[in-house]
Design a protein that fits this description.
Helix content is about 60%, strand content about 0%. The chain is mostly helical and about 70 residues long.
């Protein structure tokens, strides 16, 4: 299986891609992980006076991953 990223310039192309997906020739997946995380982080920052920076969050995630893989 090969994965490629496509930027849709014309709405008709999205319809064609959906038709291919309906025929089980391709699978369409939305890449939401990065945008969802950034939206959540921005929302948390707006609600808090002492919100963590992106670097602080990244360090914490890396520390948790490191401890998880050391086991």
């Amino acid at each position: 299986m090969e994965t490629i990223r496509i930027d849709i310039l014309n709405p008709k192309a999205k319809s064609l891609l959906q038709n291919l997906a309906d025929l089980n020739l391709i699978r369409i997946q939305q890449d939401k992980s990065k945008t969802e995380f950034l939206e959540l982080l921005n929302e948390l920052r707006m609600k808090s006076d002492k919100a963590p920076s992106l670097d602080e969050v990244t360090k914490e995630v890396e520390a948790v991953r490191k401890s998880r893989y050391e086991k």
